[in-house]
């Protein structure tokens, strides 16, 4: 009996020991398998990289080299945010996405309603300003009674004050594009019912769209000579293209800031399916040369340009003028004020060859600086 009990005890102990040994072996095997898997994963992922692209997508790639097919992509932002990010640049002016965004979100069609123009005596005093008289007389001389042309006016203010295009629109049935980045001025322009396309964007000084900072000028206080704010608002300008004279202007007016979306002029024209401009008027307080340099001149034509140019108090900007000449234009006339700001009237060589004789006949009532 004692022998049987001892044998059973020994058998049970052996069974228990074997069971424990098996359990340890199982755990050891599992540990080794896990270790091997982790080791293999470590070796396979030694070249893991993570990046965030321009669309704010998070990329995870496996292996020492990462191809598009070997990457997993996660979008960090919603579609609207991604679209806004792409507008910051530097997609080129003819990118179909950029053209569609401008057409769908930054373009208002011509009004079919009657004009609602300001007629008060104080407001229309702008017609007595020397710069407006100079440009108006030169536009009449070079364009004559040409009807139904197409204009682009950048720095359009409220669509009436100092406008170079409004007389053409009202008297000769022209249409075109008015660009004004200052939100206050643009909202006022909407009320005028212009028969032209309107855009609240700004003209990019580069070949791609970008967000920029607009310095918006307002009167510091109400003065009798400035009952209307347009002299101040007309001095609004992009921070990045401001010159020395703008720094002085900022001491005279109150400045606030806005982040504005800018598009190349070429993008705007593609959205409108326009390849020829009869009159291009640029008055954006400093960015004009860069805007002109950004244009794809082989893909569009311009007959007449009115261009404000800063920084000519002591001498002509020969580099700028040489560029204009190289693009096939001649100086018809110009005028420089006491602050070194010049209003240029450029005429394309082709337009001059076709209409030069008529233009000279219409120019007898004033003396040209370039005669």
TrEMBL record:
<dbReference type="GO" id="GO:0005886">
    <property type="term" value="C:plasma membrane"/>
</dbReference>
<dbReference type="GO" id="GO:0005794">
    <property type="term" value="C:Golgi apparatus"/>
</dbReference>
<dbReference type="GO" id="GO:0006888">
    <property type="term" value="P:endoplasmic reticulum to Golgi vesicle-mediated transport"/>
</dbReference>
<dbReference type="InterPro" id="IPR006342">
    <property type="entry name" value="FkbM_mtfrase"/>
</dbReference>
<dbReference type="GO" id="GO:0016197">
    <property type="term" value="P:endosomal transport"/>
</dbReference>
<dbReference type="GO" id="GO:0005789">
    <property type="term" value="C:endoplasmic reticulum membrane"/>
</dbReference>
<dbReference type="InterPro" id="IPR053202">
    <property type="entry name" value="EGF_Rcpt_Signaling_Reg"/>
</dbReference>
<protein>
    <submittedName>
        <fullName>Uncharacterized protein LOC108674893</fullName>
    </submittedName>
</protein>
<feature type="domain" description="Methyltransferase FkbM">
    <location>
        <begin position="154"/>
        <end position="331"/>
    </location>
</feature>
<dbReference type="Pfam" id="PF05050">
    <property type="entry name" value="Methyltransf_21"/>
</dbReference>
<dbReference type="GO" id="GO:0031902">
    <property type="term" value="C:late endosome membrane"/>
</dbReference>
<dbReference type="InterPro" id="IPR029063">
    <property type="entry name" value="SAM-dependent_MTases_sf"/>
</dbReference>
């Amino acid at each position: 009996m004692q022998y049987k009990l001892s044998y059973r005890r020994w058998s049970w102990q052996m069974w228990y020991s074997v069971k424990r040994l098996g359990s340890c072996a199982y755990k050891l095997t599992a540990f080794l398998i896990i270790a091997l898997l982790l080791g293999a994963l470590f070796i396979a992922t030694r070249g893991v990289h993570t990046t965030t692209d321009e669309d704010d997508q998070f990329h995870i790639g496996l292996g020492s080299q990462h191809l598009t097919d070997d990457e997993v992509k996660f979008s960090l932002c919603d579609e609207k945010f991604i679209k806004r990010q792409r507008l910051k640049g530097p997609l080129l002016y003819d990118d179909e996405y950029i053209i569609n965004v401008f057409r769908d979100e930054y373009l208002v069609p011509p009004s079919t309603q009657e004009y609602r123009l300001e007629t008060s005596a104080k407001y229309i005093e702008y017609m007595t300003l020397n710069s407006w008289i100079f440009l108006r007389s030169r536009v009449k001389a070079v364009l004559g009674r040409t009807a139904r042309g197409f204009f682009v006016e950048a720095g359009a203010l409220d669509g009436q004050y100092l406008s170079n295009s409004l007389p053409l629109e009202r008297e000769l049935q022209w249409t075109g594009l008015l660009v004004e980045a200052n939100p206050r001025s643009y909202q006022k322009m909407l009320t005028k019912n212009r028969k032209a396309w309107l855009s609240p964007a700004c003209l990019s000084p580069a070949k791609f769209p970008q967000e920029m900072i607009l310095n918006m000028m307002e009167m510091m206080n109400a003065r009798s000579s400035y009952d209307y704010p347009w002299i101040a608002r007309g001095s609004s300008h992009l921070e990045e293209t401001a010159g020395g004279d703008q720094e002085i202007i900022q001491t005279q007016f109150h400045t606030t800031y806005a982040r504005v979306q800018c598009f190349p002029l070429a993008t705007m024209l593609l959205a409108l399916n326009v390849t020829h401009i009869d009159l291009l008027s640029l008055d954006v307080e400093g960015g004009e040369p860069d805007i002109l340099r950004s244009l794809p001149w082989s893909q569009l034509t311009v007959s007449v340009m009115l261009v404000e140019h800063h920084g000519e108090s002591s001498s002509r900007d020969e580099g700028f003028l040489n560029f204009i000449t190289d693009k096939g234009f001649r100086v018809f006339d110009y005028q420089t004020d006491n602050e070194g700001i010049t209003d240029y009237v450029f005429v394309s060589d082709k337009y001059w060859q076709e209409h030069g004789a008529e233009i000279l006949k219409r120019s007898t009532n004033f003396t040209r600086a370039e005669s």
